[in-house]
Amino acid sequence: MFIPFVSFGQANQIRPSQKSSVTQYVGVDTQITINYSRPAVKGRVVWGNMVPYGLASADRYSNGKPFPWRAGANENTTIELNNEVKIEGTALAAGKYSIHMIPSETDWIIIFNKNNNQWGSFSYDESADALRVTVTPVEAPFQEFLIYNFGNITENSVVAFLHWEKLKIPFQINLN
Prior knowledge:
Elements: E1 18-26, E2 30-38, E3 77-81, E4 85-87, E5 90-92, E6 95-102, E7 108-113, E8 129-135, E9 138-151, E10 157-175
Antiparallel strand pairs: 1-2, 2-3, 3-6, 4-5, 4-10, 6-7, 7-8, 9-10
Protein name: DUF2911 domain-containing protein
InterPro entries: DUF2911
Pfam families: DUF2911
């Protein structure tokens, strides 16, 4: 007996904005992990163009509401903390948060939101914000692919930062 069978599959493809993760330990046992996808500049103007200043315009994916930048690509960028920390001087409880940003030419708002399992920022809900801080971007050497990393590490603090194109967006993390 012969049974004809046709199968169609989707070939594995490399995502244009690949997933990445960075972890830093601070103090005795505080673990900070940032998970994100890293888009490339690809010759484009990023700040104020591809990533607009202010909130992105409402569209069909955002239920007609303006929304912040997802601070990466694809799924939410997330930060996971196993202990309470202070971000820019304000307490943030242990947990996993999505990171969103509202860029401007001078100061940026970084949002830590309790909804951490979304695609982008399209369904961002301000009422789920755990913390908002304002930081100042700094000029930096050109970086083709968006990255998150840590610097200025001490026994009880670290500076986390996003680095893409010619900007770094740093935020101070201190142990309580």
